[in-house]
Amino acid sequence: MPAPPLFRKSGPLRIPDTAHRAIALDQLEAMFAYIQQDIFEAGNVWVRSAATVANLTTASTSCNETSDSNHSVTSSTSISSIEDVTLYDLNEHFILPQTRAHKCSLVELLVHDNDEEANKELPPDYFVSHWWGEPVVQFLDCLKQHAHDRQLAREPHEIESYVKGQSLGRSPRYWICAYANNQHDLNSELHTNGGRCCCHGNPDKEDVHSLSVENTSFVRAMRKSRGTVLVVDQHATCFQRLWCVYEIYSSLLGHNRHPKRKGNGKTGTNGDYNDEDSKEDSKDEHKRDDTPPPWYLFGKREQYTFDIYTAFPHKNRHLQDLMMDRKNQKRQVVGITDGVAAVDSNAEMKWYRESYFPVDRLELGITFDCQTARASFALDEKRIKHSIGGHDKQTILNHCVHGFMAASALRRALEESSNGNHHDDDVVAGPTMADQFLEAVRHGQLRQLSLFMGGSPADTNENMTRVIQALDPGAC
Q1: More confident residue, 157 or 285
Q2: What angle do CA 22, 26, 29 make, to 5 degrees?
Q3: Alpha helix locations (H) across 341-390?
Q4: Which element (helix H / strand E) includes 228?
Q5: Between vectors from CA 92 to CA 313 and to CA 120, what angle results, nearest 5°?
Q6: Cβ-based neighbour number of residue 4 at 10 Å
Q7: Angle formed by the axes of helices 378-388 and 391-408, to 10°?
Q8: Predicted confidence (pLDDT) per residue in 221-279, tens digit
Q9: CA dihedral sign of residues 22, 199, 247, 64
Q10: How far apart are CA 212 and CA 192, in angstroms?
Q11: Global pTM?
Q12: CA 305 from chain center: how many Å?
């Protein structure tokens, strides 16, 4: 297969640190356009492997969710459009063939801005957690919407929002494992402490303590990022995959406890995580307080964000959209952001934007249980759960995910419970949606809660008291 024009003619740009192999959003978009135009529209067809068919079939049958409006990749073995390509397919038919001659990652082959003066480092702006079985076009749509909502590509002076610190003035870079890791030598990419990669190769003989999952390229990339973007597929398979669960854990709880920085041990001049300090700190791990720190203590910035995006075609229906000339404008993606995004002017606009998030996927997040998630290898599972911690730590992680998801739809839950979910006196009433969501908020260890109730029938003193009590049980 000839190299496409988006690849470097002089060969790969070797980037030793896998955590610095982020891909720009415009590069990802150009690559998918090339695959559609120069491969599929030229009459080529990819044949999906039996292993990929099995992965997709297992995911689609393990979830009861159905969505007629959302495109779903079938188990067909013939692929003739980018619309049907998953990352499993892309890795087999594009990434591996294009990188085979140089035995490198895909990112190292791409043409970058100021390529001749490249400093051989492409640190990520955001880390992406996702399942490989989602269509890559939906995955791209999620990242494009995330970049739009955070206004990442805009220059700071062009943004009218008060949340100006989110802009980058360039195409944002995302760390995505398939493109950052050398797929020909995953053991070396994830090699640490003398162990081998626990998700590939033959892990059966590995000792659960021989590999520190916390020092893999995944977590090192998080340390360089300003936040995580969790892409939730149609069946929310990401909540069932243990590597995704581990990445959620790293994002929400920050297992590095209180990460030290180069320079003064708190905030280094370059914001990099000090691995040497972390090794010294690990000697005193048993002395530490096991209470998880706030989310903002993880990552190189003061607030490490955790955003959730999903492909869900919908039309805007709110009055505010009409006022902004966006009524009936069709969108492919909806996201839940950690705090007010740059595209929002206030909590009210944040609520309108997030209100389209599909309830069925919210409910899957509310019922998330990391203890039921699985990995491809038994030892993989042991190592990841060992890194997360025992039953108590896994319960804390569950509560954090439940709380985050519940907070984003708390108004919806309160309204549903206020709009006639009444029971006869002779019937024993179970917990309402509001009860479930408020309980999730109570245990979720939320860093902040943005709740807009203007014009809502659920805007009552009783409900506000319940919300306050959920946030601070001793307040009322």
Answers
A1: 157
A2: 105
A3: 347-354, 359-366, 378-388
A4: strand 227-232
A5: 90
A6: 17
A7: 80
A8: 998 999 999 999 988 999 888 888 888 888 888 643 334 433 333 333 333 333 333 34
A9: positive
A10: 7
A11: 0.81
A12: 10
